[in-house]
Amino acid sequence: MRKTGKVMGALLLAAWVGMVQAQVELEDVEAHSGRLSSLRGDTALDVDKDAERIKDPVKDQGIQDRQYMHQPPLVPHQVRGYEVDLKVNRCLACHGWKNAAARNAPRVSPTHYETRDGMTLGDISPRRYFCLQCHVPQTGAKPLVDNTFTPVESLR
Ligand code: HEC
Ligand code: HEC
Description:
Layout: H1 2-32, H2 90-95, H3 100-103
């Protein structure tokens, strides 16, 4: 009886050591495999993660030079709290053709009314509805990598 007990004990110990080792190895693999962590972090798929705050946006800096033809111009003002969803588009309240003059804001160009097969609509085209998809506000961040890009001669 005592012998069986000892054998059982030894087996349990071996199993436990094995499990701990497997766990350590798994963590090791995750830490060193160069696995990318997603922007969602540990947030489960069925949970909405709060958006990160826009970091130190540059305030009213005036219209910015464009660097190449067809560049979506940079947003030269803060956009915090500007709602853009199914019902409201705060950007269009100033940049839509109806209100731009009264708001002293540049109008969206006619391309914003064109569908992808070249039809011109009477209202903003769905593919140009979510403004911040293309137009970005600026922050004073240091570039992550060196960049030697220079604009074409005619824009310098
Ligand atoms: C309260 C009015 C107002 C709202 C709302 C607004 N803007 Fe503006 N926006 C302006 C004005 C005024 C200018 C011109 C700034 C200047 O001349 O310094 C401007 C400039 C811009 C420009 C630069 C255009 C160019 O030709 O360089 C872009 C891009 C822009 N806004 C995008 C946006 C986006 C995207 C939103 C929504 C997230 C938005 N704006 C909301 C008033 C507004
Ligand atoms: C798919 C990308 C895209 C989206 C989405 C988009 N734009 Fe643009 N926008 C551009 C590009 C590219 C230009 C410059 C060339 C042109 O006019 O098409 C531009 C130009 C502009 C200009 C300057 C117009 C001029 O005549 O110089 C303003 C203002 C502007 N966009 C505002 C907006 C607003 C407000 C929204 C949302 C309702 C929006 N854009 C959505 C790509 C986009």
